[in-house]
Each structure stands twice: as structure tokens, then as C-alpha cells.
UniProtKB/TrEMBL annotation:
Pfam (any one): N6-adenineMlase
GO biological processes: methylation
Compartment list: Cytoplasm
Coiled coil: none
Lineage: Eukaryota, Metazoa, Chordata, Craniata, Vertebrata
SUPFAM superfamilies, A to Z: S-adenosyl-L-methionine-dependent methyltransferases (SSF53335)
GO cellular component: cytoplasm
Gene that encodes the chain: Eef1akmt1
Record field: catalytic activity: L-lysyl-[protein] + 3 S-adenosyl-L-methionine = N(6),N(6),N(6)-trimethyl-L-lysyl-[protein] + 3 S-adenosyl-L-homocysteine + 3 H(+)
Main subcellular location: cytoplasm
Keywords: Cytoplasm, Methyltransferase, Transferase
One GO MF term: protein-lysine N-methyltransferase activity
Protein name in UniProt: EFMT1 methyltransferase
Length: 213
């Protein structure tokens, strides 16, 4: 006899655990009651995990980068956020805009965002799902988690695989030469800010005529 609940879709245990952890964190956040119409996409809805070298952008920076991505991607464009979840969250807040977005991220807490979440480990830059076709994104926004040439070089492989051409990279000012070498990107005038001040000066780099200058 078949089990009655066979046809009920089951969440995998890791998704369930991630969801439970996510909701628990939500409840613990001061004054964040559902009655206040909590927005799951707001920047900071998932807390930074410093062990994963996570630092969220300030609201203004996330919004500025999201708007730049939408403009650069064009109507019906596809945007990939590689290790840049706060930009992804801002993009999701742009209701009714005509674009689609994916988030490639090592932190599985972001799996609460469903099918748009793709687990990503920069140590395996091309270990990507088959449905993520090469050169299928109009722009890739990336913020490699570590300021090392190795991390940038490996993340660059992913970026080059995903993008049709346009790249928006956020990383330390010290990475300027390596960014040019591995991705052919140049520093913009726009200076990204984080919600907590970082010791390292951060900059944005692009390989196209952007609105960030």
C-alpha cells in the first residue's frame, strides 16, 4: 500500500533547518513583529555571519548597485548576484521591474529564497547547476568574500562563465591590479559603503560604461 503522504512535497531537512534557523533569528530580532509587515528581502533580514566574512552594504549602497544592475541588464534582463546578497535583496524589493535575478551564495540560510538561490563555493568556481547556462546573464555583480588573489581569480572564473559581458565587481581598493588582470574591470568613482565600517577601503569596478562614475 502506498503511503498517503507520498505526494505531499517534502522540504529537504537542510532547507527545513535553514528555515527554522531563519525564523528563529527573525523572532529574536528586537521589535521585528510580523504585525509590522516584515519584509523578508530587506537588507539585514539575515544577519551577517563574520565567520563567512560577510558584511552587508548600507541601504543606500545596496539600492544604488541594484539600480545600476537593472539599468545595465536592460528590459527583461537577467542579473546574477555572486556573494552579494544585500544587492539581491534590494533587487527583490524593486517590485514590478522587468528583470530576473539569481543569488549564488555559500551561506545556505539564503536558501529561504527558493529556486533563485544557488549554492556556491568559490573554491569550485564552475561547480554550477546544469540549468545555469554559460553567458546567460546580462550582468554579474560579484563581491568575493576574501581579499585574496586566489579568491578573486576563482570568483572571476564563475563571473566569466555566467556573464554575456557586463561585470560589476565590488572588492577592496587593494585589489585594483588583480581585478584588471583577471576581469578587465576598471575602478569607478562610486564608493560603496557597508552597514558597519570596514577597515579596508572598498571600491566598485566595471568593464562597461556605467552610471557609477
Amino acid at each position: 500500500k502506498m503511503d498517503d503522504d507520498d505526494d505531499i512535497p517534502q522540504l529537504s531537512s537542510h532547507t527545513l533547518a535553514a528555515l527554522q534557523e531563519f525564523y528563529l533569528e527573525q523572532q529574536q530580532r528586537e521589535g521585528m513583529k510580523t504585525s509590522q509587515g516584515f519584509n523578508q528581502y530587506s537588507v539585514g533580514s539575515i544577519e551577517e555571519d563574520w565567520q563567512l566574512s560577510q558584511f552587508w552594504y548600507s541601504d543606500e549602497t545596496a539600492l544604488c548597485l541594484a539600480k545600476e544592475a537593472v539599468l545595465a541588464a536592460g528590459k527583461g534582463g537577467r542579473i546574477a548576484c555572486v556573494s552579494a546578497p544585500s544587492v539581491y535583496q534590494k533587487l527583490k524589493e524593486q517590485d514590478g521591474e522587468d528583470f530576473s535575478v539569481c543569488i549564488l551564495e555559500y551561506d545556505r540560510r539564503f536558501s529561504v529564497y527558493g529556486e533563485e538561490f544557488i549554492f556556491y563555493d568559490y573554491n569550485h568556481p564552475l561547480d554550477l547547476p546544469e540549468n545555469l547556462l554559460p553567458h546567460s546573464f546580462d550582468i554579474v555583480i560579484a563581491d568575493p568574500p576574501y581579499l585574496s588573489e586566489e579568491c578573486l581569480q576563482k570568483t572571476a572564473e564563475t563571473i566569466k562563465y555566467l556573464t554575456k559581458g557586463k561585470i560589476l565587481l565590488c572588492t577592496g581598493a587593494v585589489m585594483e591590479e588583480q581585478a584588471a588582470k583577471h576581469l578587465g574591470v576598471k575602478m569607478c568613482k562610486f564608493i560603496p559603503k557597508h552597514s558597519r565600517n570596514l577597515a579596508n577601503e572598498f571600491r566598485c569596478y566595471v568593464n562597461y560604461a556605467s552610471g557609477l562614475d
